[in-house]
Amino acid sequence: MSTQKRPSAPTTQQRTSAPAAQQRPSAWYAVPAVAFFGLFAVVPMVLVVFLSFTDWSGFGFPELSGAGNWSRLVEDTEARDALGLTLLFMVLSWVVQTPIAILIGVWAAGRQRNRAVLSSLFFLPLLLSTAAIALLWRSVLDPNFGVTQSLPLLDRFNFLGDTDVVVYTVVFVIAWQYIPFHTLLFQAAARGIPASLYEAATIDGAGRYRQFFTITLPLLKYTVVTSTVLQLVGSFTTFDTILILTGGGPGDATRIAPLYMYIRGFSGFEFGYASAIATLLLVLGAGLSLVVTRATGFRSMQSQQEGA
Amino acid sequence: MATTAALAEPGAVPPAAPRRVRRGRPAGRREKPNWLAGVLATVWLVIVAVPLYYLVSASLRTRQDYLSTSPLTPTGEPTGENYSTVLSGGFAQYLLNNMIVTVATVAIVVAVTVPAAYTVARNAGRTVQRIFSVMLIGLAIPAQATIIPVYLLITQMRLYDTLLAIILPTAAFALPVALLVMTNSLRDIPSELYEAQTLDGAGPLAVLRHLVLPLAKPAITTVAVFTALNAWNGFLFPLVLTQSRDTRVLTLGLWDFQGQFGTNVPGLLAAVTLSVVPIFVLYLVGRRYLLSGLTAGFGK
């Protein structure tokens, strides 16, 4: 339970010595993992690129079709809209989730009375599957019998049927699902901030808000990065929530890129074209991760946790 | 390697900051109540609690009762009717399928990750480290983007509409995080312990059995919980790779209830509630493990 900023056992690690090197495990120990990962993750990655140059209806074998899918994708305004919507979701989700998660996380790291009880309530959404959450909110927001219809103010909105509102509805439901998780990250990090820093600041006369902005927030910087990376990658690939909550609708108001790919493939049986979209997603997703990890040193930070 | 990782880490905390070991002790700060944070926390609490309250309370009402009064009114006569409808509607089968998928996925992931992490942690050779890097790229692969070729592979392997069709790709996509968590944990085992084993004449296999396995238990728990949650909540792979009732898992079952029950909202909510029960029990039994599994690999 140390902070993620400090290695757990620096002294022992630094004393690593050479002589035992002969008796080390061979690469063979990794073979099962590599074979498994290769077959079900690497091979599909290569295959999806191949499939994007074919026509395949899902039955029989794919047939090569040259770059047809790709030139179609370039022209496809629906695909462009879907990508734009995905981008909008990423930005909105981050803007909503990050501040709330930081505030609640820092609050939950404090020592008020009832904090334990309240924070275990906060974390309850973590126990629900995405499908359960989407179905729950679908009934809460139902335009006829939903909870929101029985509440003042909220009953004016058709949260799932109004094309102007539905995007924000989805962002909200996704935030409801994931804020507890990010809160957990911030809570753990805020707990790791040495109390002495606050004591010193108090002696120097800094008030609570000043302390928050000059001590807490700067020290949570790396957790913000971690949380941001996870949020960006997560909202880039959001799928189940939207499929269940809105099915991409009304119209195409919430048809984000992964859903567009799914619909083209598994509803339209245009697996070749869907593979071209998937390849684009793969490249963008990998690029996104690469950029954020390179820019932030995310990978090296991950090795800071101890044991669990 | 953990050392390099630590060094590569740009000084996040002032070096002079003392390591804080006391926990759960009332610290001197926060004497005055923090009103702003309190208000925000209360608002969020309402947003979290109201839907959950609605979930349980509405699931205990009859359909007529639900339609005739406001959804938030507590019912005068709670009924278990919806629960028995759900349980007789195939729920048990879905639950069983979910359990099979979850247990098998966890078993595969743990079985292949422990030896792999052992060699990544102890073998600085180029091949092994390169393998590790490639696996870590997997952290960034969106499963959606590979679903079509996975579908092709599974149908070609004649596994379509079997539980194995869900288990295999789910396990494969859980591997990168599992390997990361496990490797980090094994790197934290002091070298002296490995060396002592080697001096006693133990080969790598013996070290794996007598040193690595016992010491990796917390990491194995974390990996198991993380993998289990993913498998338990999985949606896309079951959606695309299975179709019949016999292979339906809980998440898909819920979605199916939605269609089946139509406007029977209490029935659907009973199904949703039931689907949460197993995880809720797990939460009550091992809160710590559950939370660590949730945040596996993302710093604590």
Quick take:
Chain B: It comes from Geodermatophilus nigrescens. The complex is a heterodimer of chains A (308) and B (300). Chain A is mainly α and 308 residues long.
- Reading the helices and strands of chain B in chain order gives HHHHHHHHHHHHHH
CATH topology assignment of the largest domain in chain A:
MetI-like fold
Number of beta-strand segments of chain A: 2
List the uncertain runs of chain B: 1-30
Q: What share of residues are in beta strands of chain A?
A: under 5%
Number of strand segments of chain B: 0
Biggest interface found:
A-B, 138 and 140 residues
CATH class membership of the largest domain in chain B = Mainly Alpha
Q: CATH topology of the largest domain in chain B, anyone?
A: MetI-like fold
Q: Tell me which CATH architecture of the largest domain in chain B applies here.
A: Orthogonal Bundle
Helix fraction bin of chain A: 55-70%
Radius of gyration of chain A: 24 Å
What order do the SSEs of chain A take from the amino end to the carboxyl end, as H and E? Answer: HHEEHHHHHHHHHHHH
Give the count of structural domains of chain A.
2
The gyration radius over C-alpha positions of chain B equals 24 Å
Outline type of chain A: globular
How would you characterize the overall build of this protein?
The complex is a heterodimer of chains A (308) and B (300). Chain A is an all-alpha fold. Chain A folds into two domains: 40-75 and 269-299, no CATH class; 87-258, MetI-like fold (Orthogonal Bundle), CATH 1.10.3720. In chain A, 64% of the residues lie in helices and 1% in strands. In chain A, strand 1 (54-55) and strand 2 (63-64) form a beta hairpin. In chain A, helix 4 crosses helix 12 and helix 10 (221-236) runs antiparallel to helix 13. Chain B folds into two domains: 37-79, no CATH class; 90-294, Orthogonal Bundle (MetI-like fold), CATH 1.10.3720. In chain B, helix 2 (35-59) crosses helix 13 (265-285) and helix 12 (250-261) packs antiparallel against helix 13 (265-285). Chains A and B meet through helix 1, helix 2, helix 4, helix 5 and helix 6 of A and helix 1, helix 2, helix 4, helix 5 and helix 6 of B.
